[in-house]
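In response to the reviewer comment on reproducibility (Comment 2.3), we provide here a single inverse folding case reported in full, input and output, so that an independent group could reproduce the run without further information from us. The structure tokens appear first.
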């Protein structure tokens, strides 16, 4: 694949990608392995919406990630697994070994009756088996739905049921830091509510005592023992569904964002190579979990498509101490390091003494993803981790976009702290005002939309195309609406300012306020809840819940503890509110709509100017909330 080498080159490539998008992407796609080339590069309309890339072509993603490297780099390490406990030895898998494991597991899936188009749920910790299971699904045309192992049993069962998964793959248990998570137990609870699941495959990771339901539950190691390591990759048409990944929106249940095979493959491969300016033989360390889109595109698929060595780290940044990331970088001579601003901000609180004992000289490129990075964190990262030698790529994208859309190209794009800078080739951003008019020129701000398809974009919400259309293509006709606000500076550089809808980004995790409100409302003493975000030094945004209760609450501390436990049980502990205030009422308009704008101001501690409150049903309620603010 052609790599962008200079800023001039970027400008030229960008121009070409806008003027002749089909020719541009056809040339990129030429570098992948196809059993049949496409009949047309792109067919699209954003009204339906319908988007097809490389229609008529046949390929297989697992073949592109593994088989095609066997001859040239079969003995090179594909995956380095770094365990939670640094005293345990790390593991490596070469491309050849990965091939064997993926083929075996693909045959296991086939033996259990999994066919093309069937959905397989993966609920695994950060172990190579997660990547093996994903690649095995891709190999036989099954659709994987990875659920982050921090989600609770009810979130897991909701996701399984929404896409009617046939099979669940999990592990006995995992340690994250000192905390043990009994995955199989959580899965067991979920499995009481999931009639579509025929089997549950369990990987024995920690030798934990667990219950195995005869016939339904099967051990991974028993299944792979006697199967063949030969499994030809199934050639699938370009638009064949590849995976579903659930993500939160402003309203309703999480959406099953669907990605299809060829476009996603081309986009993940192209963006990995270019954004990080990846060079042959380098070691790439993405700290994201495989349960999120970053783990899909830049821990598994992007690096493997490029024949890179990718690190899968099971632990957390602060165990056994806050130098753990840097130990991993030092130990495995990491060249490219990709993490979330929240991790940087949390490590920043420990100071810089730790860096004296770590050798980070292998680092060449740094990246961030998931939320805006504040200037202070950017400089801290640049100075202490990158020793002022490594470019930082602030990559903006979303679960729905499949890959990075706006980002510097490492070593090529001039950087500007806290700016995602410029669109990648093929990406046509537009800022729209509240009347839906595109804002031209520089030094402007608006709602970020994309006006032309790119190969990695999501094609639908699984089982609900109308929801897909309404969420992303109805706010502004002819545009994909991202839900983010954005500024374009005097040089045309983009700075993402945050969500403009009711989605809150907590430590880079995207959480819909509606979901948390529903979970809190299940508490027996709670009548109604409104959750808003507020600025948080480490998490970026924290969650502030205003709750109306039945009668007088004897002990508010007990109530708070119970509400947090409720959210952990319904969603997962990462979604627990930071602040919970009991209020006599919520500021509502006469039509019953909660005025979140007012609650946001109170949560931010900015109560001086709450704007016009005269249209409220009960303006006095605002005073009461203000007086009790935490
Ligand atoms: O608000 C933007 C924020 O994260 C949202 C997407 O979240 P998710 O689908 O979970 O994917 C996260 C990983 C790609 C976006 O709508 N976001 C992501 N990257 C950035 C960002 N905000 C500012 N700067 C970024 N670099």
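Designed residues, in position order:
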């Amino acid at each position: 694949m052609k790599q962008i080498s200079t800023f001039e080159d970027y400008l030229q490539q960008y121009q070409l990608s806008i003027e002749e998008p089909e020719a541009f992407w056809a040339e990129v796609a030429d570098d992948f392995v196809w059993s049949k080339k496409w009949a047309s590069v792109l067919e699209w309309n954003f009204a339906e919406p319908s988007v097809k890339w490389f229609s008529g072509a046949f390929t297989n993603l697992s073949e592109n990630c593994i088989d095609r490297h066997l001859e040239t780099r079969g003995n090179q390490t594909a995956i380095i697994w770094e365990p939670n406990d640094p005293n345990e030895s790390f593991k490596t898998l070469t491309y050849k070994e990965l091939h064997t494991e993926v083929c075996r597991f693909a045959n296991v899936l086939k033996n259990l009756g999994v066919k093309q188009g069937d959905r397989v749920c993966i609920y695994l910790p950060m172990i190579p088996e997660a990547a093996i299971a994903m690649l095995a699904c891709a190999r036989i045309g099954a659709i994987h739905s990875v659920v982050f192992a921090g989600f609770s049993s009810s979130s897991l069962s909701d996701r399984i049921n929404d896409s009617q998964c046939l099979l669940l793959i999990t592990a006995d248990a995992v340690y994250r830091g000192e905390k043990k998570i009994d995955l199989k137990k959580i899965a067991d609870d979920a499995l009481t509510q999931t009639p579509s699941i025929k089997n549950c495959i369990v990987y024995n990771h920690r030798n934990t005592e667990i219950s195995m339901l005869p016939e339904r539950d099967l051990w991974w190691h028993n299944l792979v023992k006697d199967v063949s390591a030969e499994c030809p990759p199934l050639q699938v048409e370009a638009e064949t569904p590849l995976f579903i990944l659930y993500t939160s929106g402003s309203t309703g249940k999480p959406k099953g964002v669907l990605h299809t095979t060829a476009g996603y493959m081309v986009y993940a491969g192209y963006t990995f190579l270019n954004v990080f300016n990846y060079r042959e033989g380098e070691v790439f360390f993405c700290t994201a979990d495989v349960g999120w889109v970053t783990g899909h595109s830049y821990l598994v698929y992007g690096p493997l498509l490029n024949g890179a060595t990718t690190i899968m780290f099971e632990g957390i940044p602060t165990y056994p101490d806050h130098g753990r990331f840097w130990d991993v970088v030092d130990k495995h001579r990491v060249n490219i390091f990709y993490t979330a601003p929240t991790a940087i901000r949390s490590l920043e609180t420990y100071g810089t003494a730790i860096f004296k004992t770590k050798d980070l000289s292998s680092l060449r490129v740094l990246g961030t993803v998931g939320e805006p990075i504040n200037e202070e964190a950017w400089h801290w990262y640049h100075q202490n981790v990158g020793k002022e030698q490594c470019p930082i790529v602030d990559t903006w994208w979303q679960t729905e976009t499949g890959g990075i859309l706006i980002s510097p190209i490492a070593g090529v794009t001039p950087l500007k702290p806290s700016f995602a800078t410029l669109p990648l080739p093929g990406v046509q951003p537009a800022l729209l005002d509240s009347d839906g008019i595109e804002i031209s020129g520089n030094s402007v701000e608006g709602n970020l939309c994309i006006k032309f398809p790119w190969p990695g974009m999501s094609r639908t919400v699984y089982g609900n195309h109308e929801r897909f259309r309404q969420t992303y293509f109805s706010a502004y006709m002819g545009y994909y609406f991202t839900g983010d606000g954005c500024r374009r500076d005097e040089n045309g550089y983009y700075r993402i300012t945050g969500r403009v809808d009711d989605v809150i980004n907590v430590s880079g995790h995207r959480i819909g306020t509606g979901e948390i409100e529903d979970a809190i409302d299940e508490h027996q003493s709670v009548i109604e809840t409104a959750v808003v975000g507020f600025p948080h030094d480490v998490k970026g945004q924290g969650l502030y819940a205003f709750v109306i209760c039945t009668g007088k609450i004897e002990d508010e501390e007990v109530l708070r503890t119970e509400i947090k436990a409720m959210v952990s049980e319904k969603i997962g502990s990462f979604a627990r509110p930071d602040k919970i205030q009991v209020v006599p009422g919520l500021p509502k308009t006469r039509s019953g709509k909660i005025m979140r704008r007012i609650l946001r101001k109170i949560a931010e501690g900015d109560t001086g100017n709450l704007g016009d409150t005269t249209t409220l049903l009960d303006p006095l309620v605002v005073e009461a909330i203000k007086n009790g603010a935490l």
